[in-house]
Structure formats: structure tokens, C-alpha cells
Amino acid sequence: MYIYILTNPIRTVLYIGMTNDLQRRLEEHSSGLGEAGKFTGRYQTNLLVYFELCADPIQAIAREKQLKGWVRAKKEALIQDFNPTWAAIDPLTWDG
After folding, report:
1. Which run of H or of E encompasses 69?
2. Where are the beta strands (DSSP E) in the chain?
3. For the whole model, what pTM was predicted?
4. Where are the domains of the chain?
5. Could you tell me the fold of the domain covering 2-82?
6. Which residues lie below 8 Å from residue 60, measured CB to CB, with a gap of 6+?
7. pLDDT 10s per residue in the chain (96 long)?
8. Is 85 helix (H, G, I), strand (E, B) or coil?
């Protein structure tokens, strides 16, 4: 299971999600960018800037809830430690 954080091109919005297939989920987010009724479509959040692997769904759900409860500054610090330039991550080639 993966926990991930997406942002928009101007880095003003953060979206936290969970999935068992990160590549598939990113494709789903990207395909819905024109859908104004969905968060990722409305705010154009399609750039992966952080992810982590969790051992099982229970751990992943708990971690997702934990991150969603953090203030923005703490989320930004987590991203900064993992991905200092906030570059869009391709999970297939990431060596960070």
C-alpha cells in the first residue's frame, strides 16, 4: 500500500491519498483533470511529490489519516525532506 501526496503546478494545493497501485492511481488522477467536481480536477493536482510504502492497508489508513491531520507546514517539511526541489516524481524511475 502506498500513501502519496500530489500538488498542482504552482504548489498551492496538497492532496493526500492511498492506493495499492501507485502508477495506476496517478493515471486515474491525470485522466480526471478536466472534471471540476473532483478535487484533483478542480485544483489540477496531478504532480506526485511524495510517497511512502506501508506494510498493510490498516497501517496505510492510519498513516493517511495522520498526514491529513497535520498542518500544512508539517506536510511541506515532510515533502522537503523526501524531495527537496518538489520535482514531479515518476514512481517507475524514482531513485530518491
Report:
1. helix 57-69
2. 2-7, 14-19, 47-53
3. 0.90
4. 2-82
5. GIY-YIG endonuclease (3.40.1440)
6. 1, 2, 3, 18, 54
7. 999 999 999 999 999 999 999 999 988 887 766 566 677 777 888 899 999 999 999 999 999 999 999 999 999 999 999 999 999 998 888 776
8. coil
